[in-house]
Amino acid sequence: MATTARRPIPVPGDAAPGPDGALRCPWATGVPDYLDYHDREWGRPIRTDNGLFERLTLEAFQSGLSWLTILRKREAFRRAFAGFDIAAVAAFDDRDRRRLLADAGIVRNRAKVDAAIANARAALGLADGLAALIWSFAPEPGPAPATVADVPASTPQSKALALGLKRNGFVFVGPTTAYALMQAAGMVDDHLDGCHVPQATA
Description:
With 202 residues, the chain is an all-alpha fold.
């Protein structure tokens, strides 16, 4: 009598099967929003100034909230912040602040709104651009983490990035936010060992 091989049950923290059976980082398997973001964007290198400004802004708005909340409001954020065009956001005035704080489609937090505008102005003043500054703190590629327990909340490089941004006039950027930015922008690739998404090459 033939026997059927049984798929091993994933240990919590290991790559886990999604709805299509493919192994993924376990945080990505709960809702379609996370799955799509995980498969298509997270850990993929971003090297444009506006693309990095978007990720920096969204990571700052996420502070204290669920990332799912930000993902579901992302298109509203893009409309509200002029597609995250740095020059456009840098020109926002008090009327724009009032508009943003009245926009139920985004997170209406005065400190975070002010930070986004301040950061656009800081980015606009960088001689070599935002991408050059941020990527100058990229660490050497390392092996894929085995479990979520091996993924840090911050690193020496993210602490250095946060300090580097602050020295250039950026606000609302601590080491944890900086590390989340590094993950989102593909400066580090924390897809777990066994995840079906291949590690990207920066």
